């Protein structure tokens, strides 16, 4: 599978009183990774939204393995874990600067019409995205 990689600097405001990243901030970093993956595949959420389509999260799963701390960089790996033409599951791994696994996660998404929130078929509405997601799943990781 094709894997997108990006880094995020752990800022002081993202940590708790113990100096470790507050758990909800990983969700924001997952979005950064997902957005970067989509850009690496040649697309953008903004273009999708201009067409009146949104991509809400319908499920999230995060396994916390090792804390990240203030002053470190989180290395985010993101890929298309599953794709059905309607639902996309993105996979994530975040690593410490030493290469240790900090979190393993997945988020499930569907595309919906903005005005009705009714799901759409990605294959039909965005055939270029459909092909790119299929290619990304077949590519070497």
UniProtKB/TrEMBL annotation:
Pfam families: 4HBT_2
Similarity comment text for this entry: Belongs to the 4-hydroxybenzoyl-CoA thioesterase family.
Record keyword Cell membrane present: no
GO molecular function, one term: hydrolase activity
Keywords: Hydrolase
Protein name according to UniProt: YbgC/FadM family acyl-CoA thioesterase
Organism lineage string: Bacteria, Bacillati, Bacillota, Bacilli, Bacillales
Domain of life from the UniProt record: Bacteria
UniProt EC number: 3.1.2.-
EC main group: hydrolase
């Amino acid at each position: 599978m094709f894997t997108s990689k990006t880094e995020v600097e752990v800022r002081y405001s993202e940590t708790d009183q113990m100096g470790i990243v507050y758990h909800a901030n990983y969700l924001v970093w997952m979005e950064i990774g997902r957005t970067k993956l989509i850009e690496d595949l040649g697309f953008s959420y903004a273009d999708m939204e201009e067409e009146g389509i949104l991509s809400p999260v319908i499920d999230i799963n995060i396994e916390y393995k090792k804390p990240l701390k203030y002053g470190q960089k989180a290395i985010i790996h993101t890929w298309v874990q599953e794709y059905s033409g309607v639902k996309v599951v993105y996979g994530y791994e975040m690593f410490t600067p030493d290469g240790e696994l900090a979190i393993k996660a997945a988020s499930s998404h569907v595309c919906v019409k903005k005005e009705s929130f009714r799901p759409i078929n990605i294959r039909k509405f965005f055939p270029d995205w459909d092909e790119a997601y299929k290619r990304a799943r077949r590519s070497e990781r």
